[in-house]
Amino acid sequence: MNQYADALLRAGVAGTNTSHGAENNLLKIRRLLEGEPSQTFGMEALLASVGFDEAYEAVTLQTGHPPDAEETEGRGCIDPARTAAGLVEAGERVRAVAESGGSFVFATGHPGALLSYYLGLAAWVEELGGEELTARTPARYVKNSILDWVGPVGTLGNGASLWHTHDAGPMRDLLRELDGVDLVVADHGFAGAAVAAGIPTVAIMDTNDPALAVVARRGADLTVVPMDDNRPLNSYASALEVLTGKP
User: Fold this and answer.
1) CA–CA distance, 30 with 50 (Å, rounded to integer)
2) N or C: fewer beta carbons within 10 Å in the chain?
3) Is residue 197 packed enough to be buried (19+ CB in 10 Å), middle (13-18) or exposed (0-12)?
């Protein structure tokens, strides 16, 4: 596990120089407590009565550092050993479902950073015998976008650009179009809507995504990968290698 952690640290997807510092992390906890939809990720019922201490401790548990810990001003901390452990657990879960011929949905609210990661993971699932599901939805979302697909990976776009989003609506609508899903692999509201629907989920969680940490601690069927979700696309090659076990 140490060699995995070292590789993730070198890639910059974990460590003490991650994208969101104390101010942003604590702000997102406060907005979660206020019930802001961009922070609840569609899991309002699962987050009932959440308090500051619970959210703070849940993020600390997942990332290995309190959300207000900083070694560099304005930069957060994720223990790379926690990231490695989350990726290994996620890989075991994905492999088990794929080798049994199970069905997957892949989606990201962070296409500018994570698209290559999800495409690589989807390719691995196909090799193992898993089924990748896609479907169109009738609704329009942020910036008049639609649920679009890059291969088997869902994201929001307008035909020219892909959008960052926390919205749970696209996944909620997608699940209405599909007959059944064995595992969702996603982030932000795409992951939250799946968790809220009771679908087993693997999700990337950054330091400022407290909702995912809270529901995982409360026992949701959710495997969390604590990882910076704002790095350049190629930064996630090491994460994919750890998850798939294919260096």
Assistant:
1) 11
2) C
3) middle
Nearest to 53 by CA among 71, 68, 40, 42: 68
Work out whether the CA dihedral 206, 210, 214, 217 comes out positive or negative. Answer: positive
Examine the pLDDT at 167 and tell me if it is beyond 70. yes
Q: What confidence tens digit (pLDDT) does each residue in 175-226 have?
A: 999 999 999 999 999 999 999 999 999 999 999 999 999 999 999 999 999 9
Reported pTM: 0.97
Average pLDDT of span 45-70: 98
String of DSSP letters for 56-111: HHHHHHHHSS-TT--SBTTBEEE-HHHHHHHHHHHHHHHHHHHHTT-EEEEE-S-H
Q: What are phi and psi of 36, to 5 degrees?
A: -65, 125
Cα distance between residue 178 and residue 28, in whole Å: 32
Rounded CA separation 133/89 (Å): 22
Rounded to whole angstroms, the maximal C-alpha distance in the chain is 48
